[in-house]
Fold NAD-dependent succinate-semialdehyde dehydrogenase.
Amino acid sequence: MQLDDPTLLRSEAYIDGKWQAAQHGKRFDVLNPADASRIASVADLGAADTNRAILAAERAQREWRERPAKVRSQLLRRWFDLIVANQEDLARLMTAEQGKALAEARLEISYAASFIEWFAEEAKRLYGDVIPGSEDRRLVVIKQPVGVVAAITPWNFPSAMITRKAGPALAAGCTVVLKPAAETPLSALALAALAERAGLPAGVFNIVTGSDAPAIGDTLTASPVVRKLTFTGSTAVGKHLLAASASTVKKVSMELGGNAPVIVFASADIDAAVAGAIASRYRNAGQTCICANRLLVQDSIYAEFVEKFTYAAGQLRVGPGQDENSQMGPMIDKGAMDAVDAMVREAVAEGATITTGGAALDKLGDSFYAPTVLTGVSERMRIYHQEVFGPVAPVLPFSDEAEAITMANDTEYGLAAYIYSNDHGQIWRVSEAIEYGMVGVNEVGITAETIPFGGMKESGLGREGSKYGIDDYVEVKYICMGGISKS
């Protein structure tokens, strides 16, 4: 891996403005998913190191919250500029440790930078209110930073999930202790290096790298100093963190699992629906919480859709992410690939049919899996109900609008859903009836820094991005000012 700026490849944690090894000297290896080669050996921190980061954030927060919003905004804007200037190196780092195609990695860096830019601007717009009161009182509402924020981020979007949390936290006047996924710490450390260059004060943004996620997570949730926890990851881990945060009654926001349906009605443009479903399902090798997980297609167009979708999936170019010709890279590791393959085998044993793919691509490496399409999937199968974190697309028929809504809602998840239809009445009815926090209509590219990202049911709590995204990082304080009578 060649970087224009080799100093962006860091291997120590970042605490209190210093690059630090673990207290006990332990390290862990970061591997390239494409060939299992070692990229770096990174500091493997534990509970004691995490507590040091928390205390550093607490000290820094006292001064950071007092900085004028305009000053915080200017520092964040400098960070944004540096991320954009180093986009290519950051993308190469991401592809090396995460595996996604380089073109996708470049897009993620742009997406990640957009949150820093957005919240740099929002820092100056954290308005309060004056409530009309009685003659001798003034009722005032102000917003103050919640305090030290703990953020835990996943490996599938190792830069954007950081900035989507750190941006609003820092803009509001909070300080951050971030635990990135052990699979992808290098992207986090590179962002910290650029934050340091931008002038963020020591202790304001801390990175705790480590392979023992439970030890670090439990330290963050148990600490009374940490007043807010934000997490992106699986629903199972999210539930554990929610329960652990109850002892200190922290504010929490959770972006958890998904089981996104793509509902294709007979009135839809079939070619557009196929293109959208391909882009959504196979992005990042299917390792995306909002990607198409179940394709629900009206029975009158089902056969045509399956034929076109199967052909398109079979044409995708799979290869190492560093190869500019690759459209889909490897999965994060062999274990993840084996788990997806097991779900496919189980579905086939229960009556499903593979129309393309359905096998590991061993010639490419241990973590590559062919873009796969399944028909004959039923509601009894695990692959229907469980999020498939890999490049597998079950396609199911439905008869009418009511059945489509029932099938779409037949899950504990409610993050994202997609509708393809040219019937405007139907679009409104179905958008309102399905239980999802985000709905794309004739469009799968629904994410941006300007929109409120988040789900319903067991897909999470709170919203990230947009004008709503800063709300979870502030406390709303009411002040009643008496004795203001006329002289």
User: Anything to note?
Assistant: The chain has two domains: 6-256+460-477, 260-449. The first strand starts at residue 13 and ends at 15.
